[in-house]
Amino acid sequence: MAPTQPDPDSRVVEMLRTAGADLREPTEFIVFLYFPTAESASAVASRLRGMGFSDVLVSESLGGTWGCIGTRQMVPEVQGIRDLTSRLQRLAEEHGGEYDGWEAAVQPYEA
């Protein structure tokens, strides 16, 4: 039986740890979602603001799709990120779109 691979959220958190991030401190998370219409992207942008995201941007992407990008401060804790990923996947699907993941800034340990 092949060993199971960690989920993408766990792998990225481990990459943050390896890069020297202090995983106890909030950091800037950026999420990426894509939709077939400006209307669906705008509807999700409104929902993201209600979820505590700021700097939410909707713009036309390559290929005629519409991107929705949001920023939020969050502690990079695996279960919290998994929960957020699930919520964003459902939200994207409800509006005919796709959740394309997240990235986070590395907040180094301070002595």
Oligomer: single chain
Number of beta strands: 4
Rg from Cα: 15 Å
Sketch the topology as an H/E string, one letter per element.
Answer: HEHEEHE
Low-confidence stretches: none
Q: Quickly count the domains.
A: 1
Ends: how far apart?
44 Å
Give a short account of the largest sheet: 4 strands, antiparallel
The CATH H-level superfamily is RraB-like
| CATH top level assignment | Alpha Beta
- Please give the count of helices: 3
* Outline type: elongated
CATH topology (fold) name? Alpha-Beta Plaits
Proportion in β-strands = 25-35%
Mean pLDDT: 89
Helix content: 25-40%
Task: Find the structural class using helix and strand composition.
Answer: alpha+beta
Order of strands across the biggest sheet? 2-3-1-4
What is the correct CATH architecture? 2-Layer Sandwich
Question: What's this model, at a glance?
Answer:
With 111 residues, this protein is of the alpha+beta class. The chain has helices spanning 8-18, 38-50, 78-94; strands at residues 27-35, 54-60, 66-74, 98-104. It has one domain: Alpha-Beta Plaits (2-Layer Sandwich), CATH 3.30.70.970.
Report on the structure:
The protein has three helices and four strands. With 111 residues, the chain is an alpha+beta fold. It has a single domain (26-103), classed as RraB-like (Alpha-Beta Plaits). Strands 2-3-1-4 form a four-stranded antiparallel β-sheet, covered by helices on one side. The longest helix is centred in the last third of the chain and has 17 residues, at 78-94. The chain starts with 7 loop residues before the first helix and ends in a 7-residue tail after the last strand.
